[in-house]
Amino acid sequence: MSAGDRMKTTYLNVGCGKRFCKGEPWVNLDVGSADASVVPWDVRAGLPMESETVDVVYLSHVLEHFSEEAGARLAAECCRVLKPDGILRVVVPDLEGICREYLRQLEEIRSAPPGHPDRLAWIKLELLDQCSRHESGGSMKTFFHERGRDDLDYVVDRIGTVGIQLAKASPAPAGKEGRHEERSRLSIRERLLEALLRPEEAEALRVGRFRLGGEVHLHMYDSFSLEQVLKGAGFRRVEFRDADTSRIADWSSYHLDRDPDGREHAPHSLYAEAGKGPA
After folding, report:
1. Pick from 22, 19, 10: nearest CA to 47
2. Max Cα distance, the chain (Å)
3. How many Cβ atoms are within 10 Å of 206's Cβ, its own excluded?
4. DSSP annotation string for 43-66
5. pLDDT in tens, 110-161
6. Which one, out of 106, 124, 131, 179, has a CA that is 20 to 30 A from the CA of 142?
7. Helix 117-132 to helix 140-147 angle, to the nearest 10 degrees?
8. What does the alpha-carbon distance between residue 233 and residue 239 come to, in Å, rounded to a whole number?
9. Residue 179, strand partner residues
10. pTM to 2 decimals?
11. Radius of gyration, alpha carbons of the chain
């Protein structure tokens, strides 16, 4: 590592999606993006940085999209590229929090007067749908269309900005015409595969492709398991934070965990920061 690399300040946003900061000190990585500020990169190949050259690695709602083993490898890569005093900030869905809320809603349903069936239905989706879905958006995509929007405030409180986006989308399930249009866009190769495979084989191929495509959650974390995976990756100090607190200077000014309008982007998430220094 050159002296210049050691002096340069670099913040790395891994799997940034549409939430990133333009210009120095940020380097944004994602598997695909139309924005010139985002470097196309598949992190399954590791991180494209020299060892101990990065001041901050930000990993928001990314780790859960990898298997437990692949997530551990990504955490180890983050440790490798960070400077000795660098900071890893990780945001993931909070498995314990979701489970506690599911049990709370279940108890309210059994109470007199009963609670909110749609809220119970939603929290079950929050717990299961993103891990089990076989098509993009899963059951969350049609929740509002099928059940109405009476509990929109509850959903937005649970998942923030994403809840608003789901409410705006909330399309009706695709009918025959929609499925015909989707089929008409198939490539020649896909049409050949469809002709060669039995229906159940074609469906298995479609589901397999989707589940390996990056949308599905392949693992979930509570505070204990997240701390274990980070320490196993080489971090010695793990501290739990919230959307507004961080050891990263002026963190709130970047508007990554909280939108400019003050809304927490992904409420009820688990926020952790890890360093290489003593616990």
Report:
1. 10
2. 68
3. 16
4. GGG--SS-TT-EEEEEEES-GGGS
5. 998 999 999 999 999 999 999 999 998 899 888 877 775 667 888 888 988 7
6. 106
7. 160
8. 15
9. none
10. 0.88
11. 21
35 contacts: CB under 8 Å, gap ≥ 6: 20
Reported as half-sphere exposure (CB side, CA atoms, 13 A), residue 44 has a value of: 10
Q: Give the type of residue at 220.
A: M
Q: Tell me: the pLDDT tens digits for 198-222? A: 889 888 988 999 999 999 999 999 9
- The kind and range of the H/E element at 264 are none
Give the pLDDT confidence score for residue 208 in this predicted structure: 92
Q: How far is CA 279 from CA 79, 237, 244, in A?
A: 15, 4, 22
Q: Is the pLDDT of residue 164 over 80?
A: no
Enumerate domains of the chain plus CATH numbers.
3-94+221-275 (3.40.50.150), 96-211 (no CATH)
Tokens of 250: 């002026």
6 Cβ contact partners less than 8 Å away, ≥ 6 residues apart: 52, 53, 83
CB 229 within 8 A of CB 221: yes
Cis amide linkage into residue 117, ω under 30° from 0: no
The conformation of residue 253, written as its DSSP 8-state character, comes to G
Residue type, 115: G
Q: How far apart are CA 240 and CA 256, in angstroms?
A: 17
DSSP state, 36?
Answer: T
